[in-house]
Amino acid sequence: MMTSHSAIHPLTGFAQDLRAAGFLGEIDTDRALRAAKSTDNSVYQITPDLIVAPMDAADLARLTQVLARPGFADLHVTARGGGTGTNGQSLNRGIIVDTRRHMHRLLAVDAKAGWAEVEPGMVLDDLNDQLRPLGWFFAPETSTSTRCTIGGMVSTDASGKGSRIYGKTSDNVLGLEIALPQGLLSSLAPTPGWAAPMLARAEAAVRAGRAAFIANTPRLNRRFTGYDLERACPEAGGFEWWRLFLGAEGTLGLISRIRVKLRRTPAEKRLLVAGIDSFAHALAAATPLLEAEPTAVEVMDERVQALAEQAGILSRLPAALQAGAGQRIAYIFVEFNGDDAALLAGRVEQARRIAATLPGAGAIHAAADLAEIRELWAIRSAGVGLLGKVDGRARPVAFVEDCVVPPENLPAFVHDFLAVLTAHGLGFGIYGHVDVGCLHIRPALDIDADADRAKLVSVSDAVFALTRKHGGIFWGEHGKGVRGAYLKGWIGPEAYAALQAVKAAFDPQGRFNPGKLVSPRDDIMGIASTPFRPFNAPEGDALTRAFRCNGNAQCLSYAASTPMCPSFKATADLRHSPKGRADALREWHKSRDPALEADLLGVLDGCLGCKACASSCPVQVDIPTMRGAFYADYFARHARPLADRLTLLAERHSAWAVAMQPVAAPLWPIAARLAGRLIGAVDMPDRLARRLPRRLRLRAADLAPGAPPLPDRSVILVQDWFSALFDGGLHRDMIAGFQALGYQPRVLQMRPAGKAAQAMGHRAGFQAMAARLVALLDAAAATGAPLIGMDPAFVMQLRQDYPKAGFSPAAVMMPQEFLAAQKLPARTLALRDASPVRLMMHCTEASARPAAAQEWARVFAALAIPVETPAIGCCGMAGLYGHQARHQTVSRKLFEMSWRKHVTDDMQLGATGFSCRCQVERLSPAKARHPLGLIAAALGACPRPKAQE
Questions:
Q1: What is the pLDDT confidence band of residue 949, given thresholds at 50, 70 and 90?
Q2: Does the domain spanning 268-479 belong to CATH 3.40.462.10?
Q3: pLDDT band for position 322 (50/70/90)?
């Protein structure tokens, strides 16, 4: 029954009616979520009014049915997938339909015929990961493949590496299903009677404008799509209405199902990477290299190389390709795919010969190993992500970055393009697909400045004209978005009128993604009239990184085996991601809206504090640090919860608690249960660590001037308060491991590092604790013995957070850093147990120090102990987070997503983090030890314990 809305706001009434109609997904007006959905990878910001996340196609149909009711005629609807658009494609007012959250299933696969059917919210890499065992893949290889959705690719007609061979998304789609008020309409099933009049109107519009459309579209590999009048009415006859939706950016309706064409996975893959002395020479090299028939030829200019060099990314390149001091290099990446290894080898050799004779040619490296090829491509992708991480108020902006011209015209086009940028005084970075005439050129602008907004318009106009001059198109890869303002002038009045008629046939009220591409009204969004997002924070502002977030959305990677971002992986809720939190923090900074502040508290509480965003995000949007700044502001105005006060008190007095361990140990089980109830925690450690013998402890008094020197080969183990109080197994394992390797370990007296105080925004408490710890570390370092941290999260706090707070502590190493650099006395050690070890890395450690797993592998290899280090994400514990009752669902889901499968067999299990070992013991029958404990056991120095202390 339809509700009367005379006294109800349309959005409220819509939400009520939608739920009454049986809608199963989320319906949300949360301000933090709306802020998160207000931006993408562009410079624009439009805040929606309502977010809905349908569960399936039936939910989409319910949505359209309720929207068709007269009381909601003014509500607008825009579909959103991964939100990776570079030009505001999925930004709009009204209702945002989030397909990524729930509609991400692989619905059907025909491995014989070579097709698959997916929901629009399925991520590209997820689809290909599921297809890989069957020997198929979906071809368009986008740089955002870890987070872009198939629906978004269809809507923007996305393209990427290899498109010269495989085509764009529109070349790899076989059919669609869309949701309409009358029901679901599929191109793969007979047309229902109710749809016939609508399709007849659309076909008439297409036929009327087809000739004009063809006359105004260049014949290019990266062809123009979106309302594709040409292919909707093929020469052979018929009307393929669904082709109109490919590249239409949601302006014609909501897609509920997609059938994609699959390609056979090539048996062989090769990659040639060449260093060239300048981008000009690299650009000129592309055409000669095409003679070797590669799958793709891509370039990266000297500016991107310099950024990647500064970030340490290029250290992962083969040594011959790395730049010398002060050297600038442009790189060419040439990929070959096929099933005939001998044929491929010949093409690679031909390309090598061509590259060696090119002007400015330097080192050339050929890769055949799939893991190395993936790594080399990852280096190229990571370098591009760093374009947003530049100093100053102006940053590279993607607004004219995917123009396409015939490859033979590319040098002249680039010459003219760069002349435009020079005339405007703009810096830039360049990379792209030279084999198809598509270069990504990102001019650096300060979008907060009126002068630079004017340059955005002026440069856009000039580059649009250049694409016409050189026989190309303005939108070759990333869709149009607000650049659709140029569409009418580009396609011509006759063809545009046909596009308008198509729009009217499918969306007569103009409700789907209004203001984009095509409209019967004069209301198309403009590149300068669309609202811009704030670009810079005031100098020195604590939330600067929230403003630096450019929507690249690397934090939205679907893969459970990558650390960033655990709370998003568990929820698929954009507000619980670094990008979403940055958007909400930025909006709060601007508005100080109390309602937003209340929503923001809940969003920040869901952050695990793993710090993966501080290192894995291309622009290092450090949410835990900014959360601390927000809490400092908030709790200066509000009382802290009791649980927070008790946690801060426990940390501040933890050194006293360690000193009282012998007395407190018998009482701890009762105290733990009481503390758990007071702070809302579960599964608290049920025993205290035993106090170490005096000979193994190193007190502050032992570091005073005149104290006896430490023995030769001493190492000083530095503990955090959790390790000191609760992890007796860690003490035993690290001491035994170092002793077995011939070292003299001493455990430094514990001083809390202030991690809880810092995370909760208690600045004074953190500063006081940090100052005391730094003084102790400096005194310990003065002994000359190496300092080695006992827990990776503690060491990374010293490295990441202390310098930001103005502290310069003495260097504290990870165990594997120290040991990997030593000459281990393997020949003199009697290996008693060479059982294989599976070693699980702490997520903070893995993201901040990617070499950590390889360093441990070198240590184990030196001792002839087999070891494997699987790629994993967060275990879900993250210190106190995993003990808090309100976080149990997410904590346990994260363990199931990434860790469970690695702890179900009998292989010896190692874990570097205290949190990780606790989570394994809590949620599985397995026991995990610190790797040094496993080493000690293998050397017969420390037996395997019956239970973890």
A1: very low
A2: yes
A3: confident
**3-class DSSP state of 297:** strand
CA distances, 876 to each of 610, 677, 837, 919 (Å): 10, 21, 22, 7
Residue 801 DSSP class: I
pLDDT on residue 613: 94
pLDDT digits (tens, 9 = 90+) for 92-140: 999 999 999 999 999 999 999 999 999 999 999 999 999 999 999 999 8
Q: What is the Cα 23 distance to its own chain's centre?
A: 30
Helix (H, G, I), strand (E, B) or coil at 254: strand
Q: Which amino acid, one-letter code, is at 649?
A: L
Instruction: Report the C-alpha gap between 352 and 364 in whole angstroms.
Output: 7
Nearest by Cα to 156 from 280, 59, 247, 283: 247
Q: Are strands 714-718 and 787-789 parallel, antiparallel or unpaired?
A: parallel
Task: Determine the distance from the C-alpha atom of residue 285 to the mean position of all C-alpha atoms in its chain, rounded to a whole number.
Answer: 33
Residues 6+ apart with CB under 8 A from 249: 89, 90, 155, 156, 226, 479, 480, 481, 484, 513, 516, 517
Peptide bond into 565 cis (omega under 30): yes
The number of CA neighbours under 13 Å toward the Cβ of 669 is 1
CB atoms within 10 A of CB 41: 22
What is the average per-residue pLDDT within 206-233?
Answer: 90
- Cα 605 to Cα 567: distance, rounded to the nearest angstrom: 10
List, in order, residues 6 or more apart from 922 with CB less than 8 Å away.
683, 877, 882
The radius of gyration of the chain's CA atoms, rounded to the nearest angstrom, is: 30
CATH node for 1-264+480-536? 3.30.465.10
pTM (whole model) above 0.70: yes
- pLDDT class of 4 with cuts at 50, 70, 90: very low
Q: What's the confidence (pLDDT) of residue 801?
A: 95
3-state secondary structure of 599: helix
**Residue linked to tokens 């009482």:** 667
Neighbours of 698 (CB within 10 A): 23
d(CA 338, CA 578): 39
The domain ranges of the chain are: 1-264+480-536, 268-479, 544-634, 644-938
Q: Work out the average pLDDT over 920-936.
A: 95
